[in-house]
């Protein structure tokens, strides 16, 4: 056992690893999660926890040993299904310590569906109010639409927990202070002051915030229900009846509610967040008295006792579950949850809570201890000082800062983590209120971010110098110390600037690169030559090498002039369709033909380059912020490509007279250019240096030796792995980084800077089966990372003056001298 784990166990040994359970954490991982044995680290249990392999074996055995029929019948198989559903309802109530006399369990298609059901059926009136804490999932906030549409008001609130000093030493009493945000109302002429006794309001909060891990004090339930006038005395609503909704989708995974102590009216849970399987199933635990108030409009099979088709008559079923479960319940999924509950019950939820909390506390402490070489903090945690929380759940949310105090983008963290085999989540996690609260984003900034093009799940992680989201790590019942430690090591090696002797691996810091620029300027440029030329006619398909090739206004003639598009309009690339790399291309200029072949097709496709081969007129598509005019091809051509890649697609060609329309909102990865482009990602040309590739391979071999990989396992890449147009030989490694412009033969090009690499270079396309690895991108990330971008190779375009005077018959020739001009 290493020293770090010994120190961890000395503090958390009583809580970590289920020391008194039927299995230790090491035994659980070895027998029930063998799929995680291959260097995989999964840290997104707040998004979805993992199912146990033994759990799935039990599910499979159950479903293959029993016959479950539709429960809406009286057959033996149907009755057996009904009994299983009844038992599962009771398991859910037992998990929440809820009496069947007071509560019912309604199965839904998920937690969101359960919340939607509450919003649809709640007895809203124009005197009602929907009040919710800022820290709420979008699925809770969405209830606001039902309230506002019914003429009710809505308001977000902050809740602060305070201590009554008068009773501190006699009878400790928890008090809450509610601070209301702006009132939302669709009709400003409706007032709430005249609320009467039969008016109903809804108050919603999560048992645990899925953004920060803050756990709310459940005493808030009784405070709202029994002391609303005192609690909301500074609010707009002081009278009426308050019902309480708890979103326990996140919190119930490690600490279930006790409804005997905290009698909420509605509780929402999600089973895949608790034990991984099944997905698409949740539950609404509803108090019987609250269920009687809910108004059901739609009826369906299973929810009615009788109906008449040609007259306005329907008699609903009396049972609460039957009334609200539209259609046939997902009975096979429901039958599966008993096997998940068995795991939680065997380990016990208190043990699970202590185990996961020990890992979260360890991680928070380690992240807060990280310092840059100048003493500046590396990590900013969110939620730890929130006064509403009694404690924190097994979720750690944070952002990272550079040496100079600027922020690392959370997408950069996520991409590098993925390269290191670590799965986590970034963004706002569908919790806009908590995100804005903890990141300090004003309404003006939030709206400005949207105007700048930022939406959920995009790459706009820093806007106007401030993060738009965070990094989230969350633990589950099967998480280990080794996973937490590996994550800390990853953050340290990738984002912490340490004194030079302590720096890990080959990581080349930005300050070191800046110093290299000065050295390069002082050196005389070494003469190199053009080693190879490659043309890629169809975007993301294989290209072909030539000794010489003509130039055009868009780059190499016919380079990336075609692309494949799915029926839904998605532009297909190797990132999602690796089989595209198996499509071979070549062009015979003398015959004016594009030849296309594939191992999946017996015949070779011949496509004339003349416009007469088009099957339709001009259309428009969007790509990389540009709008293109394009032409499509015949059904026979499209069928060939569909067979070649194994999915429906169509071939499109950029118009011969095309000049992409102006870029829409969004930042370019390189300097803006007015040069015409075909379907390239960034620029007309990509240039790669053999000297730089050789240095990369030296680093790949060294990393393999450190990792004790065999020579056969070590990765070695060629220049063509990066899909360059131009490969040069000669010169120093990475000297191309400092080129301002370059002359190749009689042609001049301007450097647009480094090419930002993505995981596409990790596909090994030379093997029999296309394989994705972490290399070479992981090694490049260790020393070629600049402000969130992993750079390798440079982007080129014709200089404007050269474009204006360029002759039609300009060619590039292998062997021509390369003369760079340094910056």
Automatic annotation (TrEMBL):
Active-site residues (renumbered): 430
Source species, domain of life: Eukaryota
EC annotation from Swiss-Prot or TrEMBL: 2.8.1.9
Organism placement in taxonomy: Eukaryota, Viridiplantae, Streptophyta, Embryophyta, Tracheophyta
Chain ranges of the MOSC domain: 662-821
Family: Belongs to the class-V pyridoxal-phosphate-dependent aminotransferase family. MOCOS subfamily.
EC category name: transferase
Cross-referenced PROSITE patterns: MOSC (PS51340)
Protein name: Molybdenum cofactor sulfurase
GO biological process, one term: Mo-molybdopterin cofactor biosynthetic process
Entry keyword set: Molybdenum cofactor biosynthesis, Pyridoxal phosphate, Transferase
SUPFAM superfamilies: MOSC N-terminal domain-like, PK beta-barrel domain-like, PLP-dependent transferases
Keyword Translocase listed: no
């Amino acid at each position: 056992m290493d020293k770090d784990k010994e120190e961890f166990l000395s503090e958390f040994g009583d809580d970590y690893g289920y020391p008194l359970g039927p299995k230790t954490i090491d035994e659980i991982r070895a027998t029930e999660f063998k799929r995680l044995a291959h260097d995989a680290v999964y840290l997104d249990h707040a998004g979805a926890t993992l199912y146990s392999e033994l759990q799935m074996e039990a599910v499979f055995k159950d479903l293959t040993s029993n016959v479950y029929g539709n429960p809406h019948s009286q057959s033996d198989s149907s009755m057996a299904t009904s009994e299983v559903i009844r038992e599962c309802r009771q398991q859910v109530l037992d998990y929440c310590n809820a009496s069947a006399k007071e509560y019912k369990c309604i199965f839904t298609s998920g937690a969101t569906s359960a919340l939607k059901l509450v919003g649809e059926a709640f007895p809203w009136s124009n005197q009602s109010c929907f009040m919710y804490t800022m820290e709420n999932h979008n699925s809770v906030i969405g209830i606001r639409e039902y309230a506002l549409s019914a003429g009710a008001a809505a308001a977000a609130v902050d809740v602060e927990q305070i201590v009554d000093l008068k009773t501190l030493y006699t009878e400790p009493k928890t008090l809450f202070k509610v601070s209301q945000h702006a009132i939302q109302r669709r009709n400003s002429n409706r007032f709430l002051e005249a609320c009467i006794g039969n008016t109903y309001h809804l108050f919603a909060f999560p048992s645990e915030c899925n953004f920060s891990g803050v756990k709310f004090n459940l005493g808030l339930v009784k405070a709202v229900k029994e002391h609303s006038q005192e609690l909301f005395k500074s609010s707009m609503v002081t009278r009426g009846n308050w019902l309480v909704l708890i979103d326990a989708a996140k919190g119930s995974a490690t600490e279930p509610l006790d409804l005997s102590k905290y009698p909420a009216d509605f509780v929402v849970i999600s089973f895949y967040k608790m034990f991984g399987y099944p997905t698409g199933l949740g539950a609404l635990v509803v108090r019987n008295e609250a269920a009687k108030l809910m108004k059901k409009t739609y009826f369906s099979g299973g929810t009615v006792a009788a109906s008449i088709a040609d007259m306005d008559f329907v008699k609903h079923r009396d049972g609460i579950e039957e009334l609200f479960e539209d259609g046939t319940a997902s009975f096979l999924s429901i039958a599966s949850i008993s096997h998940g509950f068995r795991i939680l019950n065997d380990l016990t939820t208190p043990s699970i809570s202590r185990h996961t909390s020990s890992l979260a506390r360890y991680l928070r402490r380690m992240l807060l201890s990280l310092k840059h070489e100048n003493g500046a903090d590396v990590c900013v945690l969110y939620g730890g000082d929130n006064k509403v929380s009694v404690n924190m759940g097994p979720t750690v949310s944070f952002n990272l800062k550079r040496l100079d105090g600027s922020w690392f983008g959370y997408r950069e963290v996520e991409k590098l983590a993925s390269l290191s085999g670590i799965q986590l989540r970034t963004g706002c996690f569908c919790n806009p209120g908590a995100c804005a609260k903890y990141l300090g984003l004003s309404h003006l900034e939030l709206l400005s971010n949207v105007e700048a093009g930022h939406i959920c799940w995009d790459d706009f992680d820093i806007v106007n110098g401030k993060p738009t989201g965070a990094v989230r790590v969350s633990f589950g019942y099967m998480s280990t110390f080794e996973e937490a430690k590996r994550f800390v090591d990853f953050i340290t090696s990738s984002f912490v600037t340490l004194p030079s002797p302590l720096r890990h691996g080959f990581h080349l810091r930005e300050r070191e690169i800046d110093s290299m620029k000065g050295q390069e300027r002082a050196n005389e440029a070494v003469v190199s030559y053009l080693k190879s030329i490659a043309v890629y006619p169809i975007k993301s398909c294989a290209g072909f090498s030539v000794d010489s090739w003509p130039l055009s206004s868009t780059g190499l003639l016919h380079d990336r002039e075609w692309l494949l598009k799915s029926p839904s309009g998605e532009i297909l690339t190797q990132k999602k369709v690796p089989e595209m790399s198996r499509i071979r291309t070549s062009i015979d200029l003398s015959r004016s033909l594009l030849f296309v072949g594939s191992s999946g097709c017996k015949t070779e496709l011949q496509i004339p380059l003349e416009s007469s081969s088009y099957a339709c007129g001009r259309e428009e598509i969007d790509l990389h912020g540009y709008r293109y005019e394009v032409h499509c091809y015949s059904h026979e051509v499209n069928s060939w490509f569909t067979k070649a890649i194994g999915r429906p697609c169509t071939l499109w060609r950029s118009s011969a007279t095309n000049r992409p329309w102006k870029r829409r909102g969004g930042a370019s990865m390189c300097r803006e250019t007015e040069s015409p482009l075909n379907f390239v990602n960034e620029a007309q040309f990509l240039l790669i240096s053999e000297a730089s590739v050789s240095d990369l391979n030296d680093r790949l071999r060294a990393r393999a030796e450190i990792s004790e990989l065999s020579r056969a396992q070590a990765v070695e890449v060629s220049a063509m792995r990066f899909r360059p147009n131009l490969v040069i030989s000669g010169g120093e490694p990475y000297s191309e980084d400092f080129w301002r412009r370059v002359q190749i033969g009689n042609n001049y090009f301007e450097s647009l800077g480094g090419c930002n690499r993505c995981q596409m270079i990790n596909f090994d396309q030379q093997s029999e089966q296309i394989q994705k690895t972490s290399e070479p991108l992981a090694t490049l990330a260790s020393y070629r990372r600049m402000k969130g971008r992993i750079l390798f190779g440079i982007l080129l375009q014709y200089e404007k003056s050269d474009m204006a005077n360029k002759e039609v018959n300009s060619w590039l020739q292998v062997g021509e001298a390369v003369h760079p001009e340094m910056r």
